[in-house]
Design goal:
Layout: E1 7-13, E2 16-22, E3 40-47, E4 55-59, E5 62-65, E6 73-82, E7 87-91, E8 95-98, E9 111-118, E10 121-127, E11 135-142, E12 157-158, E13 169-171, E14 182-190, E15 194-197, E16 201-203, H1 205-208, E17 215-221, E18 224-230, H2 238-243, E19 247-254, E20 264-268, E21 272-275, E22 283-292, E23 297-298, E24 305-308, H3 314-352, H4 401-413, H5 423-437
């Protein structure tokens, strides 16, 4: 469907033209385009002369056209468009109006307003053209109010800390956030109740803000250069980190007079980077730049930071010293532990599994394990044994009775092989043998 023409009202004010646009179908009961705020308005205007060149400008429903010549007739027509749907409407009928003279001296007004933003800190600057003492009041307007089909002239608000100042700049960061856009203007006051409002300047924070240089800290580990990057704005720059997706361009080089190697570039999206394969005993210098691809912005490079790599022999000595310290520590712990385990093993073996050592005069018997005093041994059966002594007499030989008696005494001493039952029998046999000898 075709978008109809909008309505237009013109009012000359102090050399400017105040314009108010009504959306298409404003006076109709049934509307095809329900959301009036979705319209964007394109204004075409020109001087009412034969050789005038038309000019085009995007405007809000209520806006002011300045920079016009006084006492000059201008003609205007407006078109309503829907950029999202790619549709353009019909132009309104042409309306013409004559401008008036400015009521105040232009020199009193603050001129050349500009906003400088760095790391979400915004300062408004202007120029003073008046020779007499002037006081300034800075005012701001939330940009969303201009999109409404209402007069916003009474909704300007003073910026805290920027009232009745005699300087030509003011910090306006306290009223600017990243949720929208703003307009700023300066009201100048001089003697005899003279005042003048400057032209407006638009502030789109994320687009106008400039990114400052990041912070850089260097460290050396073995043959690696560690680079720690602090985002722009420092520890308090959370607004920068929350609203910009930053990447970093690292520029590093050998700071040596006899080294002709050029600087190298490394890009990263992290705040920690590592440069490998460093030369020993070499001074390396680094500087970093912050980048925002979404807003096509880049910071200046950070200050140059340099660090010296250690000598080549330092690394093997460190490794050797570490190995020796670790070896001594292992020996100090392992040797006492092995000694304690060995002693415990010997004691346990001696108590539970002792070894018997037979006398040397006993042959034919090997060593055997003795029963442990802590373990019960099975009882062996014992048999009663007796020895029958016999005597063989040879003719022509005499036997000394004393030697026999001594032999008999020795036999009695070895009582392991005799018992009490055959003791009397042995005694009788000895007495009979003695009598026969006699």
């Amino acid at each position: 469907a075709q978008i109809g023409p909008p309505g237009i009202e013109l009012q000359p004010t102090n050399g400017d033209i105040k314009i108010k646009v009504s959306p298409p179908e404003a006076n109709q009961g049934k509307k095809m385009w329900v959301n009036d705020l979705s319209f964007k308005y394109n204004l075409v205007f020109w001087e009412n002369s034969s050789n005038a060149q038309p000019r085009s400008k995007n405007i809000f429903p209520v806006d002011t056209i300045d920079d016009l010549a006084p006492d000059t007739t201008y003609c205007f027509k407006v078109q309503a468009n829907l950029p999202v749907e790619g549709k353009e409407g019909l132009f309104s009928p042409v309306s013409c109006v004559k401008t008036t003279q400015k009521a105040v001296n232009d020199l009193l007004c603050a001129a050349n307003l500009r906003v400088l933003g760095l790391n979400m800190e915004f300062h408004l600057h202007w120029e003073n053209q008046y020779k007499q003492p002037v006081s300034y009041n800075v005012q701001y307007l939330i940009g969303y109010l201009k999109r409404l089909n209402e007069d916003y002239s009474g909704k300007w608000v003073g910026v805290p800390g920027c009232g009745n100042t005699s300087g030509t700049w003011c910090n306006v960061s306290c009223v600017i956030t990243t949720t929208g856009f703003y307009y700023l203007r300066v009201q100048a006051r001089a003697g005899h109740n003279k005042s003048c409002l400057s032209s407006e300047v638009k502030v789109d924070p994320l687009k106008m803000n400039e990114i400052g240089p990041p912070g850089v800290k260097l460290d050396i580990s073995d043959t690696l250069l560690h680079i720690q990057i602090s985002p722009p704005g420092g520890p308090e720059g959370e607004v920068m980190r929350n609203n910009y997706v930053l990447s970093y361009r690292i520029l590093y080089w050998k700071n040596s007079s006899n080294d002709e190697e050029g600087a190298k570039v490394k890009e990263t999206k992290q705040t920690v980077a590592t440069i490998p394969d460093l030369a020993p005993e070499t001074l390396y210098c680094v500087k970093v730049q912050a980048l925002s691809e979404a807003y096509n912005k880049s910071s200046v490079y950070s200050q140059e930071e340099c660090i010296q790599t250690p000598g080549e022999k330092a690394f093997p000595l460190i490794i050797l010293a570490t190995f020796l310290v670790a070896l001594v520590a292992v020996l100090l712990v392992a040797l006492p532990l092995v000694f304690v385990l060995y002693q415990a093993y010997s004691k346990i073996k001696y108590v539970f599994f002792p070894a018997c050592q037979p006398p040397l005069n006993i042959e034919g018997f090997g060593g055997q394990l003795c029963p442990s005093p802590y373990l019960s041994a099975p009882e062996e059966p014992i048999e009663n044994c007796s020895i029958i002594e016999s005597m063989i007499t040879y003719e022509g030989n005499q036997i000394d009775f004393k030697d026999y008696k001594h032999s008999k005494q020795s036999s009695r001493d070895s009582g392991n092989y005799s018992n009490d039952d055959n003791a009397s029998g042995s005694k009788g046999s000895a007495e009979t043998l003695e009598k026969q000898i006699i």
